[in-house]
Write the structure tokens for this entry.
Amino acid sequence: MELAPSMNAADDPPDNPLHLDRFIPYRLSVLSNTVSMLIAGAYEREFGLSIPQWRVIAVLARYPDLSAVEVAERTAMDKVAVSRAVQGLLDSKRVLRAYDKGDRRRSILRLSAAGQSVYQRVAPLALRYEEELLSVLSASDQRVLDRLLHRLLEKAQSMAIIRAVQ
Amino acid sequence: MELAPSMNAADDPPDNPLHLDRFIPYRLSVLSNTVSMLIAGAYEREFGLSIPQWRVIAVLARYPDLSAVEVAERTAMDKVAVSRAVQGLLDSKRVLRAYDKGDRRRSILRLSAAGQSVYQRVAPLALRYEEELLSVLSASDQRVLDRLLHRLLEKAQSMAIIRAVQ
DNA sequence: CGCGAATGGTTACAATTGAAACTATACTCC
DNA sequence: GGAGTATAGTTTCAATTGTAACCATTCGCG
């Protein structure tokens, strides 16, 4: 098939300055994916942990005895993802599960000794990656980043809720 | 099963201040996913476009007559993802494909009139979402964000390359 | 030329993820 | 107490995505 010469040069639509490299949602996605693959690759290689599993471990290290839905709330995962991550962590004996006496639907999750040991080794690794990444920013830029991420997330969540409700 | 009372209170490991809500890679991931779902939901509902398809359209609108690998380079997608997105766009007649005379492996991709029309309608929509998201930041904060994202991505990519090579 | 390596792109298969249905337990309130 | 609804969590099935293998064509070079 032949295509006629294009009428649509690279600088053609001057009214619509959408350029992917300047589009913040796209750039956030590329940055987030690059960082996640970098760090998750390390968890994976060294400890056989998926990102969801690592998130569950991280939150249980701080807040033992959460239920699965509480873990979901604190990790921005849905309950299916938590269920699967927990199943894997039970299989590898890194998490212990009991059930609430008063409400037998609720599980009570806690790291085993092995799980705590994994956490003790993964957490410094994760923090070193974060530190190396942030090393290209000044201390004050790091504070600004913190503030910007916070504001943007609040706004994005409020936008998502408004769309969902309407 | 019974669990003994935990020895591991919420403030227990003071040496390892890894708290998911403070961990930049995690926060980037949550922000990026929230924003992507918000905007991609709109493309999907209104135009039946997936994110990869939208990216291909956006780049072809600016740079017609790219090959698939060139599209991949400009969209941070791999060639399989591009192949699938292009296939969908050919099916929906939003993209035209020819082949290079000199090198018959190379495809030459261009938006059809329908594809351009989709772009003309999606681009403003995407830009309005971006604008609304960024409306919580001052103009100077927006410039800072731009700079921070750029630096962080460069650093993340250099870290990824170093790990990959070694 | 012609053979091996490289490139552009697709296909096939496996692993991951998402959405909906489902089970079990608990709560509401008549 | 019991019907109807809500909640916790799992399972199932489909869709998406990732990886590797695979064609076809072209390039490098003896």
In short: Chain B touches chain A through 77 residues (CB under 8 Å). Residues 50, 78, 80-81, 84, 103-106 of chain B lie near DNA strand D (CB under 10 Å from a C1').
